[in-house]
Write a structure and sequence with these properties.
With about 100 residues, the protein is α/β, with parallel strands linked by helices. The chain has a single domain, classed as Metallo-dependent phosphatases (Purple Acid Phosphatase, chain A, domain 2, 4-Layer Sandwich), CATH 3.60.21. It has five helices and three strands; from the N terminus they run E-H-E-H-E-H-H-H. A three-stranded parallel sheet has the order 1-2-3, covered by helices on one side. The protein is elongated and about 50 Å long.
């Protein structure tokens, strides 16, 4: 029977996310849902984004994710970028173009 595995507030903690998914015994028929705040605070936001894509996870945007997206949209438009906290600024500096897309 297929399941929905829902995990929230990952905050850039890739190792912990991977351990949790393994502990759930995720199979190919299960849907992984990451709900809110994939990035910021933890050590590997870019790794979390890559993992979400590689595992075809469904994702819901959280406020920390939105801060980074809003900054990138302003940057791309040539507008003044909103101020970011240290954690969100670290994310912006670590992501490549593919991860922003």
């Amino acid at each position: 029977m297929a399941r929905h595995i829902v995990i929230g507030d990952v905050h850039g903690c890739l190792d912990e996310l991977q351990a949790l998914v393994r502990a759930c015994g995720r199979t190919r028929s299960d849907t992984l849902c990451l709900v809110g705040d994939l990035v910021a605070k933890g050590p590997d936001s870019s790794g979390v984004i890559d993992f979400a894509r590689e595992t075809d996870a469904a994702c819901v945007r959280g406020n920390h994710d939105q801060y980074v997206i809003a900054w990138k949209a302003a940057f791309d438009a040539g507008d003044e970028q909103p101020a970011l906290g240290k954690s969100a600024q670290k994310v912006v500096n670590s992501l490549n173009a593919k991860q922003f897309a």
